[in-house]
Specification:
Enzyme class: hydrolase
Helix content: 40-55%
Bound molecules: adenosine-5'-diphosphate
Catalytic activity: ATP + H2O = ADP + phosphate + H(+)
Radius of gyration: 23 Å
Largest sheet: 5 strands, parallel
Family: Belongs to the RuvB family.
GO cellular component, one term: Holliday junction resolvase complex
Structural class: alpha/beta
Protein name: Holliday junction branch migration complex subunit RuvB
Oligomer: single chain
Strand order of the largest sheet: 2-3-6-1-7
Amino acid sequence: RSLTAAEAEGDERAIEAALRPKSLDEVVGQHRVREQLGLVLEAARRRERAPDHVLLSGPPGLGKTTLAMIIAHEMSTPLRLTSGPAITHAGDLAAILSGMNDGDVLFVDEIHRMSRPAEEMLYMAMEDFRVDVVIGKGPGATAIPLEIPPFTLVGATTRAGLLPGPLRDRFGFTAHLEYYEASELDLIVHRSAGLLGVELTEEGSAEIASRSRGTPRIANRLLRRVRDYAQVRADGVVTLDIAHAALALYEVDELGLDRLDRAVLDVLCRRFGGGPVGISTLAVAVGEERETVEEVAEPFLVRNGFLARTPRGRVATAGAWRHLGLAVPTSAAM
Ligand code: ADP
């Protein structure tokens, strides 16, 4: 019997959960964040207090949810998970907060997408551990103060700059997660292969690592796709040749650029002569949300020297033209 799409996705999520590091010691890379966070947690444990609120920023798949789970785990408290888009009314947040116990960790993913009224309620909750619940409407409305036990908020966002200043300022510790080095991704691929019982060679692992777009989630996903290929078309061992063939099949190029990354460069060079182009125009041209282009594709392209942000818009670098196999115009940015 073959899996339905939903089952397959559930399966993928279950695998992702199984591959998550459970403690700070198991986290690969992010040395500075690990050390800083380790200190914050150790100090809180010694004082027997809930740690300060933590803000984690960085592109998707770099370990924000993983770190939130580790914070709860290391403090031996339950983790409550929600997300900005799920909190459309202040009342949604009040319901969550009023159900919390002393020392609980509340994880709010995509915290920059919370509604304004909820955000304002959150300021108060973070600072004073109380909120005002408004009952009724108009002149008859009354605010009922509600005490909340001390808790730790862990917020995640793709860019800290998306948060309003007052919210950002209420986090006692902010960590920015950076893309991973190929050597770190190599360790992650090895670790995951061990957990999944996949046999792989050094070259096979290095190949997957170098095409993972600096992102652990992608490294784990590519490992699973290459494993599929190895099992169906070969003897199950992930070698360099198998990794090459599988990644070519899934259209992951040798630098790890995915379809969206390539589409952005392609449109920028072929349609707009290398720019400058505004981000909104670029997003429309590739048929994606502006946020996705700005928060997912762009940081990777900038970090790898394919794209530059200028006051007049985005421009393609000489490297971008070359990567697309096009002649570099003399005007191209270096
Ligand atoms: P985010 O919340 O930033 O989108 P996640 O925390 O969900 O990212 O991480 C995605 C996957 O990548 C997880 O399943 C986890 O196994 C893996 N991962 C993330 N960071 C690390 C890390 N530092 N070491 C090992 N695995 C990691």
